[in-house]
């Protein structure tokens, strides 16, 4: 057996289970993608507000940079020679918008989630995480020295039971959740988590807003804003790479937490910082965030309609309360075939299979964006009915 035979055998097992993955060969054309000569409406994007396809925004940004162009690379960690004023400007603006003491930038949401928890948790810390938190959070928990348990998804009686039993055994407990879960499209009950924090004085809250920032709240600050919980979350993490059409991530927190992370968080300390040019683009979009309310409202209308159709007319379970609408089919092969049929009809839909989701819950994750029209959604629903009828 050659050195590579093991890996080939494992890949063959993935093919047999319909779990083999490859990079798609696609060309982006606004809200459409082209693949093998076929144009398809993109229903798999995280560009929730459609900002990545907004030519007018891009032109306005470039015109603003006519006199002063930021560096295209930082060339270093921020703790060495890579700390540019653009980072501090965005951090100040974000802290002010969230009405919190501090904000700290990271290269990606994955960097944030694998770095923050190992930095702030030790053996005297218990991490209690929702069962369905993102893989990056799970990796961050595993990298920490902290013991951890997981509570059943959005089961707050179970969480309360854990807190009641464990709160006297640890110096601190960090409860970890997403605000909007990316596979089921449902929300955490953030006010309930805040109530637990008030009940148990050693509880801290870690909330990942990756899929909420930009989309929810009166000013687009996320689910925590919409649920009036912004002042009470100790680690409010979010990304710029989805609704805000850029790259990077952040945590909004107290100043002492920011200072502690700067001194202890390995992915921050040992990574080349984001390009300043990218950070300026992020700040440009973040400044405009309050003015995207019409886009948010349109997205909510589209989402409510699609959820209703899937739940009622197709008689399928509907955990979603958001713009992420899972079309749960269960079987891997059936899900792959359904996605292929929808692509043949002009809709770029992708199968989501284990280990991304639990076994027997394979699905097509319908991800709506604000640049989709009502007519386009109705046409998709017709093709969805057709694909189901022949599946």
Notes on the protein architecture:
The structure is a single chain. With 391 residues, the chain is an alpha/beta fold. It is built from 14 helices and 14 strands. It has helices at residues 5-16, 55-64, 85-98, 109-120, 135-143, 156-166, 190-199, 223-226, 255-264, 266-269, 276-288, 293-313, 332-344, 374-390, and strands spanning 27-29, 32-35, 38-42, 102-106, 125-130, 148-151, 172-178, 203-208, 235-239, 249-253, 324-330, 347-348, 351-352, 362-367. The strands form three sheets. Strands 4-10-9-8-7-5-6 form a seven-stranded mixed sheet. Strands 1-2-3-12 form a four-stranded mixed sheet. α3 packs parallel to α11 (276-288) and α4 packs parallel to α5. The chain is globular. 45% of the residues are buried.
Rounded Rg: 22 Å
The largest β sheet comes out as: 7 strands, mixed
Low-confidence stretches: none
Strand content: 15-25%
Mean pLDDT, all residues: 95
Figure out the total of helices.
14
Classify the secondary structure makeup into a structural class. alpha/beta
Distance between the termini: 41 Å
Shape category: globular
What's the SSE pattern?
HEEEHHEHEHEHEHEHEEHHHHEHEEEH
What proportion of the residues is helical, as a percent range?
A: 40-55%
Number of beta-strand segments: 14
Taking strands numbered 1, 2, ... along the chain, how are they ordered across the largest sheet? Answer: 4-10-9-8-7-5-6
